[in-house]
Amino acid sequence: MPYTIKEVSEMTGIPSSTLRYYGNEGLLPFVERSTSGYRLFSESDIGMLRVIECLKHTGMPIKDIRKFAEWAQQGDASLKERYEMFLERRRVVEAQMEELKQTMALIEHKCWYYETALAAGTGAIHRKEPHFEDWQRLSEEHK
After folding, report:
1. DSSP states of 6-18 as a string?
2. Which residue spans within 1-143 are E strands per DSSP?
3. What percent of the chain has pLDDT over 90?
4. 3-class SS at 33?
5. Is 121 left (phi over 0), alpha (psi -120 to 50) or beta?
């Protein structure tokens, strides 16, 4: 059973305007249209939309997502290219996760810092602000 753009928007949380934009940008060349021109999405189209959203969340540019959509239409002929693209996306996400871990270490340290300062009634309890290298160590010590 095909789904309308409104139904897909409700199912995925992707705004209809974004779905139209994806279509206009060539990310959805596989989506069929009714005789009146309305987009009709299948279950596999919805699965592809989830992959597109995932790639978008990794920071992948639209032009590269478009290339992926083109490769997907080629079937087995592009398996290697798609595999290599996902290996690269994995490296990107791993780097993002490492950066977020460092950000969390600073946040954890600052939570500890202010918690202890509040308990003491003064920020003077901390003689000096630690350097960046100390944030992760300190946040681990004060968990």
Report:
1. HHHHHHH---HHH
2. 32-33, 39-40
3. 77
4. strand
5. left
